[in-house]
Amino acid sequence: MRYGSVCSGIEAATAAWHSLGWQPAWFSEIEAFPSAVLKHHYPTVPNYGDMTKFEEWPDEPISLLVGGTPCQSFSVAGLRRGLADPRGNLMLTYLAIAQRHRPRWLVWENVPGVLSSNGGRDFGTFLGALGELGYGFAYRVLDAQWFGVAQRRRRVFVVGYLGDWRRAAEVLFESESVCRNPAPSRETRQDAAKCLTAGVEKRYDFETETLPVAFSRNDDGRDAAENITPTMRVAGRAGGTLGVAQPIGFGAQMSVPQTDVDLMQTLQAKNPMAVAQPVAFDPYNQAISEVTHTLRRGSGPSHDAIPQTLSAMQVRRLTPVECERLQGFPDNYTNIPWRKSAESPDGPRYKALGNSMSVPVMRWIGQRIQKVQANEQSRN
Question: Is residue 164 part of a domain?
């Protein structure tokens, strides 16, 4: 599969799809730092820059067009000018590129605010144009926290397939959902789960609360909770039961954590999140000086990324490496030589990561597309 990418950023799509054997034909990115990241990791892939100048690009065939056009005009936090904002109009440029290259597949991403922008008319315009171009489509809101990363990042994904909406639906929806017989699910709520926003001193009711961190109900270590958030696991300790003092996410400009702030909030390009330092502790309020192992640079105690001697929650900003992990990138993916320096400053890394798609979500979409194609070939 050869694909073209617009608004490429630091290329979550390529980081996700490389393992599938897919190859990027070209990128389109105008920001200086993300462009440098692309050149560093993918020196043989051309970056055509400004997507509005697509008519000047080589007429190279592609099988898929992917892009997350700027979301500021559709964000609930933005001005909500929708298609009146030139940045919003880039979604129509995306469609014009699709019309020129006629790829079999389209993958488009944006914030959930696009669904209600201008009373839903902006999104309706986009979908209507897809239909006029001959693409069947499906769309779904996917949350990165269910794909193995420790942040809530809800995004709208539109998948288009030239000539058949059923192929697009097969990608985004499991078979039971397409058949209108979805499996039971928990009720969606706006507030964060209790165990993510409660203070450290809270005593949990193990019979009624689902814990996203490693806990055992018995002192001998048996009967541990199964649904453990992967990035929040704690190494075992003989003769006792360990848990994690949950980190509370909040704006980096705040001086103290607030218990009513969503822990797993979306990583943003501006004002990177700060966290109350997660420290391993005994569920019965006995603090110990051991940090969660995912914050270590290596496997031994000498490789801790943060101090070992912590007895209470401490406030700090997320490191760029932790932000890379929150988005599913390899460690130091954005730490490239930059402006005559061997390493990159934190600021551009935070911005690029905050603007990026989530790698695990993009990997799942790619795997689903590959599966649909394989099924189609077997039917033929």
Answer: yes
Measured distance CA(288)–CA(310) in Å, rounded: 8
Is 339 a domain residue? Answer: no
Amino acid at 335: N
Structural domains counted in the chain: 1
Q: Is 125 helix (H, G, I), strand (E, B) or coil?
A: helix
Whether residue 71 lies in the annotated active site: yes
Q: Is residue 27 a part of any domain in this protein?
A: yes
CATH number at residue 111: 3.40.50.150
Q: How far is CA 122 from CA 96, 117, 246, 339, 364, in A?
A: 16, 6, 39, 40, 27
Range of the domain at 66: 2-178+356-379
Rounded to the nearest 5°, which phi and psi values hold at 232? -115, 20
Q: Which of 71, 179, 195, 323 is catalytic?
A: 71
Spatial distance between the Cα atoms of 131 and 121, rounded to a whole number of angstroms: 15
Residue 218, domain member (yes or no): no
How far is CA 110 from each of CA 37, 68, 149, 156, 219, rounded to the nearest angstrom?
22, 6, 19, 5, 46
CB 71 within 8 A of CB 94: no
Q: Is the pLDDT higher at 226 or at 66?
A: 66
pLDDT of residue 202: 34
pTM above 0.90, yes or no: no
Q: Residue 45: which of 61, 66, 28 has the closest Cα?
A: 28
